[in-house]
Amino acid sequence: MASRSSAEMTLPGEQDLWFLPLGGCGEIGMNLNLYGHAGRWLMVDCGITFYNPLQPQTQPAQLTADVQAADPSFIAAQRENLCGIVITHAHEDHIGALPYLWPRLQAPVYCTPFAAEVLRRKLARTDLIEQMPIIEIPPGGTCQIGPFLVNWLNITHSIPECQALLISTPAGKVFHTADWKMDPAPVLGRPFKPQVFKRLAAQGITAMVCDSTNALKSGFSLSETACFHALREVVSQAPKRVLVTGFSSNIGRLISLGRIAQHTGRYLALFGRAMENMVGAARACGYWPDDLPLIDNAHIGFLPPEEVLVAATGSQGEPRAALSKLAEDRHPQLLLAKDDLVIFSANLIPGNEMLVSRLVDKLKAKQLQVLQAADTLLPIHVSGHPNQGELAEMYQAVKPALAIPVHGEATHMQANAAIAREVGVPQQLLGQNGDLFVLAPKPRIWPGFVKAGRVPIANT
C-alpha cells in the first residue's frame, strides 16, 4: 500500500473546524466538500461535471471524458474517518458522482426523500442498490452524524427539497448555503422565508460557505413564476411546434410547461431519459400534479404542429441528448420542420459554449426558429442562484464571522467576497479546490493541502 502524504496523515483536533473543498471551489459544478472536526470528516455533496478536458494532475492533459468527478483519493485513503455523506439536493453536480465514487468511500448517505428517490433510480441497475445505506431526512430535519450536528434548512432553488445546512460542532458552526435564491413565488414548493436565516445570527455563525454563481449580476434574480408567464406568452404566439430545452431536474419549469400546454391547447411530451426519470421521481414523491397529463412520446409525431409542445434534454449541446438527435433528424419519434420554434430555457454553463453554438447552427440550418435568452427581453429562463442583492441580504441576515465563497470561478468568488466585505462580514477567505480553510480556532488558509484533480466516469 502506498504511503500517505503528510496532509493525509493530518487530522483535525477537538478545537479544530476545517473546510476542505475537493470540487466546486474555483469552478461551477462538480461539488465535493469536506468538513473536519475531532478526527472525523463529513462530506457534503458528491457531484459531476461534463465535457471538459481532464486536469493533468490525475490524467494526461489530452484525455477527455463525457462525465468527470472530483478526485476522492484524499478521503478514500482514510474512509474510516468519514462519518457520513450529506446530499443537499438532487442536481447532478451535487449527487451525480455518488454511484461511481461511493465504493471508494463506503459511508452512509443522508438526503431528503426526493434526493433519495433520484439516487435509488440511479442505483437500480447496479448492485449498489443493496449496499449503499441511504438515510432519509425530512426537509428541515436534524441529525447527529459523528461529531457533527446537521440541521437541514429549506431554501428555494430550481429543484424540489433543496436544503441549506447548519453544521454545528463544539469548535464552531458553519452555514453551508448549497445552491439557493430568494424566490417569493416559486412554481413548486414554498416561498423563501427570510426569518429562518435571520435566526441564525443569534447562534454565532463561524463561517458562511456561499454560492457565488451569480455574484457578478446586480439586483435580484427573477421568480420562477415570471418565467412561467414569459414562456406562456411566447408559446401562445407560436404558429407551429414548440420545443423547450432546459435542465431535466427543474420540475417547476416542467410543471409550468404542462400548464402552458393546457392553456394553449397543446399536448406536452418529454424527450430525454433524464427528464423522464426526474418526472417519475416527482410523481413518486407527490410533486407532479395529478391533473397534468403527459402524452405518450410515440403519439406526438402524429399531432398537428400547432398542438405540439415538447420539453427536451440537451440545452448544453450534449451530443447524445434529445435535442441534438432532433437537430440531426436522428430522433425516432419526431421530425422538426421549417419554422418550428426551439426555446432555450436554460443558462449556458461555462465550458459548453462551442457545443451550444454548433447545435444552434444545426437548428438554424434546418430553418427552425431559435429563441435564446439573449434574443428577447422576456425572462424565458430564470436562474436558481442569487444575484448581488440576495447575497447582501443573506450575509446581513446570518452575520457570519467569516465569508467563504464557493461554487464559482475566481471572478465570481471575488465578487462574492466583496459583497460580504461591503455589508460588514469581518473576514473573507478565498481559495480553490485542495486548499484547507481553517475556520477555528484561528482562521487561515493552508494552500495546496490536497492535490486536487478529476477522475473520469465516462470516456468519449
UniProtKB/TrEMBL annotation:
<dbReference type="InterPro" id="IPR055132">
    <property type="entry name" value="RNase_J_b_CASP"/>
</dbReference>
<feature type="domain" description="Metallo-beta-lactamase">
    <location>
        <begin position="29"/>
        <end position="229"/>
    </location>
</feature>
<dbReference type="GO" id="GO:0046872">
    <property type="term" value="F:metal ion binding"/>
</dbReference>
<keyword id="KW-0378">Hydrolase</keyword>
<protein>
    <submittedName>
        <fullName>RNA-metabolising metallo-beta-lactamase</fullName>
    </submittedName>
</protein>
<dbReference type="Pfam" id="PF22505">
    <property type="entry name" value="RNase_J_b_CASP"/>
</dbReference>
<keyword id="KW-0862">Zinc</keyword>
<dbReference type="InterPro" id="IPR011108">
    <property type="entry name" value="RMMBL"/>
</dbReference>
<keyword id="KW-0479">Metal-binding</keyword>
<dbReference type="InterPro" id="IPR042173">
    <property type="entry name" value="RNase_J_2"/>
</dbReference>
<dbReference type="GO" id="GO:0003723">
    <property type="term" value="F:RNA binding"/>
</dbReference>
<keyword id="KW-0694">RNA-binding</keyword>
<dbReference type="GO" id="GO:0004527">
    <property type="term" value="F:exonuclease activity"/>
</dbReference>
<keyword id="KW-0540">Nuclease</keyword>
<dbReference type="Pfam" id="PF12706">
    <property type="entry name" value="Lactamase_B_2"/>
</dbReference>
<dbReference type="InterPro" id="IPR036866">
    <property type="entry name" value="RibonucZ/Hydroxyglut_hydro"/>
</dbReference>
<dbReference type="InterPro" id="IPR001279">
    <property type="entry name" value="Metallo-B-lactamas"/>
</dbReference>
<keyword id="KW-0269">Exonuclease</keyword>
<dbReference type="Pfam" id="PF07521">
    <property type="entry name" value="RMMBL"/>
</dbReference>
